[in-house]
Amino acid sequence: MTASLGAYPIGIAGQPWGDAEKAAWLARQSRQRSYTADVLSVIERLRPHLDVSEYSRLNYAPDSYSLLAIRSRDWRDGLPIMLVTGGVHGYETSGVHGALRFAEQYAAHYTGRANILIVPCVSPWAYERIQRWNPHAIDPNRSFRADSPAEESAALLRLIAPLRGRILMHIDLHETTDTDETEFRRALAARDGVAFRPGGIPDGFYLVDDTENPQPAFQLAVLTAVAKVTHIAPADAKGEIIGSPVVAPGVIRYPLVKFGLCAGISGARYTTTTEVYPDSPHATPEQCIAAQVAAACAAVDYALAHAV
Ligand SMILES: [Zn+2]
Predict the structure, then answer these.
(1) CA-wise closest residue to 4 among 176, 182, 200
(2) Sign of the dihedral defined by the CA atoms of residues 187, 193, 194, 195, in that order
(3) What is the pLDDT of residues 146-181, one digit of tens each?
């Protein structure tokens, strides 16, 4: 770490941000890509084959975002539901485009066997700004709880609520990027008024299982499919990945519900969070998308094969 990266440019060390610091942070964010061009246009293409519905709108004046869910046709109440979410962290590009590609290429493949529900971009304001937080400097992926302070999280929770108990599998598509260390972890420490502690970024793909409901065979099935597309992250010298013990090659665990994480929203038997590493010298953007798709397909296939 270079000294120049040591101090985050907003706030006073040791003091949590107030409204002025959050406003200063917001003023630094600018639109860098288009949700309409990159996401909505692809979803338009899917309408002849899949059911698209608006589950909520995000209003961040002057911007407004239509939040869309995609369902497979022939939705039947007796079939298990498979949930694929992406873009909970808007900057994590391959999560959004992996969910869209899974929808386009594979959702119809499971007709008659499963109901597929895809929410490709949970946080479109952050997608456009290549950001982790929403405009209120809140991380949606720590906010999946009752009375959520993040509208992105609250909207997804409302969509899922009537389906709880019928969702067999949920895969949430993420990335771990170099900017996690150079920007987002620093911003988090600054926002909360705590010291930033440098950490590492693993080179490769890994999964996050649920401490409260570990499913090692399911995680292994997903990793085995992904390993054909991109490399799996090794444990560091301490046997960890981003500070958590590696319980199996490429797998760590978090208490999903306690942390307010997206993968904890469904109550599904099989849940996982993918973490693709797009900054690897050994992975192209295309490989990252393909890895997300391979993970989603393997997750659905495993759940179908182990439904009872
Ligand atoms: Zn993420």
Answers:
(1) 182
(2) positive
(3) 999 999 999 999 999 999 999 999 999 999 999 999
Mention every residue, 6+ apart, whose C-beta is less than 8 A from residue 63. 125, 128
Cα 270 to middle of ligand 1, angstroms: 19
Q: Check if the beta carbon of residue 49 is closer than 8 Å to that of residue 136.
A: no
> If you measure from the C-alpha of residue 307 to the centroid of ligand 1, how many angstroms do you get, rounded to a whole number?
28
Which amino acid, 8?
A: Y
H or E stretch at 115: strand 115-119
Note the Cα 83 to chain centre separation in Å. 12
Token pair 């996401």 in the structure block, residue: 39
Residue 169 φ/ψ region, left for φ over 0, alpha for ψ in the -120 to 50 degree band, beta for the rest: beta
- DSSP-based three-state secondary structure for 200: coil
Q: What's the 88 CA to ligand 1 centre distance in angstroms?
A: 7
Ligand 1 centroid–CA 87 distance in Å is: 8
Tell me the per-residue pLDDT of 34-60, one tens digit each, with 9 for 90 and over.
999 999 999 999 999 999 999 999 999
CA atoms within 13 A of residue 170's CA, in its CB half-sphere: 25
